[in-house]
Write a structure and sequence with these properties.
Layout lengths: L5 H11 L6 E3 L6 H14 L1 E6 L4 H15 L2 E6 L2 E5 L7 H6 L42
């Protein structure tokens, strides 16, 4: 589980402010399916909010600790029924991508089409512009 400095935690809380919860933990608790969804969303987004529908604060704290322990994530914040969890993206193997040769074909020029006459204006006749003398007022009855 990565440890966060106070500055990192503050930055992550600021980034998470605009996020909506992507996973909800309901009456059945933290099932393997819910844990898998949290894992998938952490891989995709790195920083997520989880909503817990449980009124017991200690149960929510234990859920946060269990999520972080099982998925290798860091707890960012527990506020009300929302848990904010962060896990850095896994490092992608750059060397494997570099070892694959990139093959490019030479660009072939497109055939030129013969010149066409300019197209006629569309929409028919135009209206004359409105007078710019200001707004006219109707007299009061």
């Amino acid at each position: 589980m990565p440890l966060l400095t106070p500055d990192q935690r503050r930055d992550l809380r600021a980034r998470a402010h605009r996020l909506h919860p992507v996973v909800s933990i309901g009456q059945h608790g933290l099932t393997p399916a819910v844990l898998h969804e949290i894992d998938v969303n952490l891989d995709a987004h790195e920083l997520i909010k989880v909503r817990v529908y449980d009124d017991d604060r200690h149960a929510r704290e234990s859920l946060l600790a269990r999520i972080c322990a099982e998925l290798g994530a860091a707890p960012v914040q527990h506020i009300g029924k929302l848990l904010i969890v962060w896990r850095p993206h896994p490092e992608k193997p750059i060397e494997a991508a570099k070892s694959t040769p990139q093959v490019r074909r030479p660009r072939t020029p497109l055939p030129r089409s013969p010149a066409r006459p300019p197209a006629a204006p569309r929409g028919g006749a135009r209206r004359p512009p409105a007078p710019t003398g200001g707004r006219r007022r109707r007299p009061h009855p």
